[in-house]
Amino acid sequence: MGNKQTIFTDEQLDAYQDCTFFTRKEILRLHGRYHELAPHLVPMDYTNDPDVKVPLALIVNMPELKENPFRNRIVESFSEDGLGNLSFNDFVDMFSVLSEMAPRELKAIYAFKIYDFNVDNFICKEDLEKTLNKLTKEELTPEEVNLVCEKAIEESDLDGDNKLSFADFENMISRAPDFLSSLHLQHLSDTLIQNDLQSVVTGTVPPWSNSGLNVYLRDTMVVSRT
Amino acid sequence: MPRHKLVASESDVSIEVDADFTEDRVREVKNERNPKAKERDTKRKLEIHKTTEQKTENKKRKRSHSKQRGKRNIDDEDKGGEQISKQKKNRKNKKTKKLLTEEAEGEGYITKQKKKRRPQVDEENANATKQMTPEGPPKKKKRAKVQVESSSESEDSSSEKESSEEEEWKVTALTPEELEKLKEAVDEKKKLITILRGKPWPMLKKLQTLKESHDFLEKFEGALGKGKAKKLYAYKVMMLKRWMKFQRDFENFKTACIPWEMKIKDIESHFGSSVASYFIFLRWMYGINMILFGLTFGLVMVPEALMGKPYGSMPRKTVPRAEQASAMDFAVLWDFGGYAKYSVLFYGYYNSQRAIGWLKFRMPLSYFLVGVGTVAYSYMVVIRTMARNANEQGGGDDTNFNFSWKMFTSWDYLIGNPETADNKFASITTSFKEAIVEEQESRKDDNIHLTRFFRVLANFLVLCCLAGSGYLIYFVVRRSQKFALEGLENYGWWERNEVNMVMSLLGMFCPMLFDVISNLENYHPRIALQWQLGRIFALFLGNLYTFIIALMDEINLKRKEEETVKLNMTVWMANLHNGTLAENSTAPPITADPADVPRGPCWETMVGQEFVRLIISDTMTTYITLLIGDFLRAVMVRFFNYCWCWDLEYGFPSYSEFDVSGNVLGLIFNQGMIWMGAFYAPCLPALNVLRLHVSMYLQCWAVMCCNVPQERVFKASGSNNFYMAMLLVILFLSTLPAIYTIVSIPPSFDCGPFSGKNRMFDVIQETLEMDFPAWFGKVFSYASNPGLVLPFLLLMVLAIYYLQSTSKTYKKANAELKKKLQAQNEENKKKNKRAALKASDPEEARNSASEQQWHQINNNASKKEMDTWGCERGQNQHVTTCTRQSAAVKRQCGPADLHNPSTRPPPAQRNPATHGYLPGNPHQPSLRMQRTSSLKLQ
Q1: Integer Cα distance of B488 and B494 in angstroms
Q2: Partner residue opposite B394 with nearest CB, options A66, A177, A211
Q3: Among partner residues A132, A136, A178, which is closest to B715 by beta-carbon distance?
Q4: Nearest CA in chain A to B407
Q5: Residue B360: left (phi > 0), alpha (psi -120 to 50), or beta?
Q6: Nearest to residue B158, comparing CAs of B3, B355, B8?
Q7: Is the pLDDT higher at B46 or at B648?
Q8: CB A184 within 8 A of CB A98
Q9: Predicted ipTM?
Q10: Is A1 on the interface with B (CB under 8 A)?
């Protein structure tokens, strides 16, 4: 493999490539990210499929997910136990489904799972309210929320049961122009953001010399001001 | 073994049917299955919905099946049963169309499996199979309808089936037809492997399935074929594997080769997809320019530089005596004068010699074809990209799902930066509020007249701006011509660069002005953005075309000058001859240094130079604005904030936003200039590649370092084709003048590859005459005669017309179907509501239940009904109504037909078009379940 340390066997990598939309390099990078989440927990050597799971709290803090209002739901719907503990397989699965190459149908299935907060296989009004409140940070009044949810159900509920089944959801989402592009997630180059943060903390780097730093600087300043 | 699995997974559900058989099988399975598989099996069992209704449903169905089976068995033993099961499956297939596609595949696959197994099973097995066939489909159907997760079940079981089938295959000998079937199975496996990544299964399951299928393939791929055929097959398989491996490696390599991927992803995660879309566009443009550069560099510049006559060998390749003193000055070179002008960078340097070097390279022909080829290639790429984008976008024109879409697709999952996220939250909230207001239609147009007045005023102001800028450019260009006539040496830097500077400055300040003006209009931001884009587009276009018109004037002037030079030339030649004749009559006639020979103004080089200068100044302005407007501003805001009286960061100057639309427009116009000028200055693509390369780094850095995310975060996907369309328009508009000059203006007499010809395209004719056999020329002349070309054109026009009208018809039909579907949905909804109302009133329900229910059953019954029925069941009275009703139904249809409702009398209002997503479909089995359960009550 050329690496100094074997993380996966070639067969494993091939299998992962068959099962996901990733290239070899990306899978290795994903493993890097996974390892980073819990360095004590996750071994570097994955050739013998260790049974390791990283808890939800750690995964949710990944920069890709940190700002996502649905982060908990995303992680939960990809975990095998439904509680948000992800094994490496689940982890890869999550990024694969949310990658650019994943087809619409697949994304629709998982999107349904994500928005189905109470896991009853229907998106009911309660789910919609939760979704809306997360999207708007609860800035809409209860009447407005109610109205929007009712409208949404009215629009896409074909069978008139006042909740959205997967068929309804798929029918609605398959025509959405933005759906494919909206449900993307990507793994960044692993250390970029952390580097930025570190340099901000240590104060070794001038503000314009590093990418994205400015933004972080501003954030930290806002924090210190408040 | 399929039936092992099926029975095993079913064994917890069905006890009464085939109990002995089941146990028997389970024992067998235990021997075969490894603990892992067992564990998986139990897991799967857990996944299956284990509601009591389903269990009873299963039992019921099985009972009916066994009845039916008994009947069939009397008629004909094996074949009939098989056919029936197949038929049934077909019907089921039709009914479950709604399921995911792979589901359907899986089902077909199972059918095949069954077919395959049949011939080689012995008596006992045959018995088992017969028992299995009716069981398979219902089970699958139950799973399919229940929920999303279970949609994969049947597929899974099919694959497991296969893996356990290996054992059977080992023992039996392979007959040709079995081989055929095995081959089929192998192909199926392969297909499964290729589509595996699209399955909504957990990764563990995928990996296991993959492993199993790989094992299967390994075992049986070699077994196919006999003797030589076997070897050949093995070889083929091996090569195929290698090929796959190679493909995968190549794919990996390809993705590794995509430049700036990380950079763009990085930006994407900070600023959302719209800013990233600009960089993706930039990269795409870079790719195109690389190819244009490759064409011009490889086929025009390099051959001329290597094989053409060297510098100084003829007048067109030599700096004239008057300019030689300053030809190496930086100021001159920077203006692309001096040595730069007399080099391969410009049209004038090229020689009109037909074939150059030892390769006999046809230089003029190559020059012409490359010029045409770049344009043709650009057209092709742009149109292809547009078509692809249009395909990807799908039918996004449906506005019925306003709120749902807003709710489910408005969050951009790429956002990873808190500030962008905040902005996004805010913009989503406002968009919801706007939508609510629109929905309530309570927005009072408080002063529509004032708004209208402002809009008219704004448009008037913008028009004034446009006209003013157009006039300014025209004025400046005319002035520069005056300067040029008087000799540029007398003027300073500003006079020489006036045109470019004015154009760049206009391009910089007018958009800002438009932005200010558009505040008057009070449009929705999305519409405002489009207006803004349209205005900037008009401005740029106007400027460009004024520039071109001025250039045309100049070309005409130069051509007049050329006439006088030609006259002078003959005089000069005569003088030269006279001089030499007097001295030495035997010497060759021309001895003058090429630098001294008088020469024409060569308007082509002039045009090329103008474009190059324009590009350079444009690039410089962009970079300088970037440095001053973004970087310096950010630094100032950042550092002066410590000692300033108000908050600079959130107050007035603030950090700048990244202006996606303006940048995209700049890029598009830059490309337009490249297309226009590339024919006369082959160096333009190279320059542009350089520019784009630097831009990429510079802008990436600037964005990450000194810009803040936009306040209104727009999604990029919708506007992609908008940009492409603009690019196409620009491409068309920029090729127009180029083609006009090529076709209608005769080339200069003493410079460039076409010198001495009447028109530039004569080079084609010349090649046809000299390089091709005579018959080819004849054929070509026949083919190009109007008698053939006109009908051909007519045919093409007709074809276009036909295609367009068919597409229009399709669109219409599509809309019609959509309308129908909607009407159907509405009707369904209403009906369901009515049913619910009636159901809540027991007395009424009893009266009308029979009619109502009959109607419902026929009419793709839906979930709503299920609920109402559910509550009916809660009340005793209704149970009786219900059962009575369904019993009546049953009597009417006959027991055998119960599991295939499609044979019932045709429903009154079934609409075939609505099959796809009709609400009733997924729940049909559960409807049946209700009926069967009521049967049991009976």
Answers
A1: 11
A2: A177
A3: A178
A4: A132
A5: left
A6: B3
A7: B648
A8: yes
A9: 0.76
A10: no
Cβ-based contacts of B393 with chain A (< 8 Å): 177
Query: Which pLDDT tens digit goes with each residue over B405-431?
Result: 878 877 777 777 777 777 778 777 777
| Residue-level pLDDT at B683 | 92
Nearest residue in A to B390, CA atom: A177
Residues B727 and B384 sit within 8 Å (Cβ to Cβ): no
CA gap A40, A30 in Å, rounded: 17
Q: A129 to chain B, minimum CA–CA distance in Å?
A: 10
Other Cβ atoms within 10 Å of A129 Cβ, number: 17
pLDDT value at position B506?
A: 84
Which residues of chain A are within 8 Å of residue B720 when distances are taken between CB atoms? none
Q: How far apart are CA B635 and CA B655, in angstroms?
A: 9
Residue B99 CB coordination number (10 Å): 22
Confidence of residue B846 (pLDDT cuts 50, 70, 90): low
Nearest to B857 by CA among B913, B916, B897: B897
pLDDT reading at B871 higher than 70:
no
Residue A195 has pLDDT above 70, yes or no: no
Q: What is the pLDDT of residue B543?
A: 80
Residue B371 pLDDT level (bands cut at 50, 70, 90): very high
> Counting one residue from A and one from B, how many pairs have CB atoms under 8 Å apart?
271
Give the pair of three-digit tokens for residue A215: 């933004």
B573-615: pLDDT as tens digits: 888 777 555 444 444 455 677 777 888 888 899 899 989 988 9
Cross-chain Cβ contact B198/A115 below 8 Å: no
Model confidence at A209: pLDDT above 50: no
**Are the beta carbons of A167 and B268 separated by less than 8 Å?**
no
Task: Kindly indicate the confidence band of residue B367, based on its pLDDT and cuts at 50, 70 and 90.
Answer: very high
Residues of A in contact with B828 (CB under 8 A): 158-160
For the stretch B710-719, pLDDT in tens is 665 555 445 5
**Between chains, do B147 and A121 touch, taking CB under 8 Å as contact?**
yes
Using CA atoms, how far residue A208 sits from A166, B309, B635, in Å, is 48, 51, 8
A133: which residues sit within 8 A by CB, 6+ positions away? Answer: A140, A145
Alpha-helical (H) ranges within chain A are 10-19, 24-37, 56-60, 63-66, 71-78, 88-97, 104-115, 125-136, 142-156, 166-173, 179-182, 192-202, 213-225
